[in-house]
Amino acid sequence: MMIMGNLPFKSDLIRELTKLAIDRGLQAGVVQLFGSLGSARLSYFDQIKRAYQIRGFDAPFEIVSGTGNISLKNELPFVHLHLAIADHDGKVFGGHALDGCRIYAVEYAIWPFSGPAPKRVHDHVTGLYLWERERYEPAAGTS
C-alpha cells in the first residue's frame, strides 16, 4: 500500500515526514518526494573528520530529487532523506536533509515495508548510524 500526499506550506520537511511516520505507525519504508523549498539545510559526512558538515541555503530551491527511507533509531521512526536541490540558475546542490528545510510545496510517496523494521545502530568503523547488519553466512564452498 503506497501512501501519497503533500506537506504543509512553510513547515519543516524532516519534522513533517517524521510526524507522518509516527501518526501512521510506519517503522520502515521508502520515501520519494519532489517539489520546492523556501530554504534548505543539508549536510555531508566528512570521512576524514568523521563529522557532518552543514550548509544552509536561504533562498528558494526546486527539489530535483528526494529519496530516503524510514527505519528505527532509538526505537522511534527515523527519516533518512537525501536531497538534490536546484537554484534559480539550475545549479544543483545535494546532501543529507536536516531540520530547517522549509517547505514551499512538497508532494511525497511512501512505500511501507512489512516485517521487522531495520534498526539504526552506531557503526564504529565509519562513525555513522547504519542499519544493523543482517547475519550473513556464506554458502558451503564459497567465501
From TrEMBL:
It holds the Pfam family PCC. Transmembrane segments: none annotated. InterPro entries: DNA_bp_PD1 (IPR025707), PPC_dom (IPR005175). Residues 1-134 form the PPC domain. It comes from the Bacteria. This is PPC domain-containing protein. It comes from Geotalea uraniireducens.
